């Protein structure tokens, strides 16, 4: 089977390459190799690679920047998806976000729950979902992190080294996701020839404050931090941002776990794995 992965330089793209099953031939590009917002470039890429399946891990993920430049976010998150659908006749695997939901649910969001994005980023990702065909595969996820990537975990580590105290939002609830675990789920869904919408995040529930506290505890245990600092919980209203974020965006992953017949791995276990890898970078 011939697979093309876009966004190969990102956290998920790298994880997909590292976890690719035996017997799968993988071609990959990042934004320096192919401008997905250029239909001619996409057409030439698909013609050259002739993939059976395209896994689209490319995305405009600067949530706050999207508020002032929604057109740029739309070019990657919406229009590029439509171009891939138009130029590639086989299955497209597309990765989306918990930000397509408005955070008003009293339970974890199921794949078929109504969407109501609150931000430009969420709107462009929802529109990208709408470009997919019935035979395509949509995987929504949340709060991605991996060793060496640009993410909340590594930002917290840097700030914990630089500061004596941190204030972290405690009233936005969801679940972290380790990129290699997400990648394995995507490969597993492809092995099952799945189509439609599935959710994947690590098991458990957290606020950003909970996540930050766990990062410090695990990093101290691994020697990534020399000393503990005070971490103070604050409300979203105390940390205004250009983009409105959902207050509750936990994803219901039960259908994914049932299809793949694999167990849930708690986010703290995967955080420890990520930090163990981070420690190897020295």
UniProtKB/TrEMBL annotation:
One of its GO terms (biological process) is dTDP-rhamnose biosynthetic process. Its EC number is 1.1.1.133. Its cofactor is Mg(2+). It comes from the Bacteria. Pfam families: RmlD_sub_bind (PF04321). Keywords: NADP, Oxidoreductase. Residues 1-278 form the RmlD-like substrate binding domain. GO terms for cellular component: cytosol. Binds 1 Mg(2+) ion per monomer. Pathway: Carbohydrate biosynthesis; dTDP-L-rhamnose biosynthesis. It catalyses: dTDP-beta-L-rhamnose + NADP(+) = dTDP-4-dehydro-beta-L-rhamnose + NADPH + H(+). One of its GO terms (molecular function) is dTDP-4-dehydrorhamnose reductase activity. The keyword Disulfide bond does not apply. InterPro entries: dTDP_dehydrorham_reduct (IPR005913), NAD(P)-bd_dom_sf (IPR036291), RmlD-like-bd (IPR029903). Transmembrane segments: none annotated. NCBIfam families: rmlD. Catalyzes the reduction of dTDP-6-deoxy-L-lyxo-4-hexulose to yield dTDP-L-rhamnose. Belongs to the dTDP-4-dehydrorhamnose reductase family. This is dTDP-4-dehydrorhamnose reductase. It comes from Alteraurantiacibacter aquimixticola. The gene is rfbD.
